[in-house]
Amino acid sequence: MYYLNQTEYPTVPYPHDLDHGGVPVGRGNVANAACGPCCACMVVNNLTFARLTLPEALRLSGEVGANRDVGTDLSILGPAVARCYGLTYANSYDIADALACLAAGGMVIANPGGDRDGKVGLFTHGGHYIVLVSAEDGELTILDPALSEARFAEEGRRGRVRISYPFVYAPVETVREECVRPWPSYHLFKRKK
User: Would the CA dihedral through 96, 177, 123, 75 be positive or negative?
Assistant: First the structure.
């Protein structure tokens, strides 16, 4: 299984939030903001015989304008990736659609929202993308592009997932609760038939 950890690239630039003057110095890099392109690489490299490199994903994000706001807009980058690599793309707010995509052999980029209502976000404090790989017995197998032991040792996160690097395992219901967003929670990718 191909895995890409964004935290290994703190010196690789990823300009974003361009419509608002960019981000503060030190925040416009892969480690801080390119979870979306990293997830796109994992989806393409695991679902197809093609190879999407991180530099190619960053370039594509810029070309299609997916980096115009903070981070990456997967509603823009997702369809472009699907077109370029022979995949289908859809998005949804419903975990049932994500589970159906996984059951059909696809992969899902999920968008957990972070801290809210006094509760610490499991995968992020502010916004993040993770890849859902499979579901079995009420548990999701996840590739988190910012995975580290310290990430899930934090107060409010400790004990809520299992880790067997590079995989994170979390209950379906937990991921559903984390992905309640005012924009699409799930970006669904499948091979074209």
Answer: positive
Q: How many CB atoms lie within 10 A of CB 155?
A: 6
Q: What structural domains and CATH numbers belong to the chain?
A: 6-191 (3.90.70.10)
- Quote the pTM value: 0.96
Q: Mean pLDDT of residues grouped by 10 in the chain (193 residues)?
A: 97 90 85 96 97 98 94 96 98 97 98 90 93 98 94 93 96 95 90 90
Query: What's the length of the chain?
Result: 193
23: nearest Cα among 131, 126, 123: 126
Residues 6+ apart with CB under 8 A from 138: 171, 172, 173
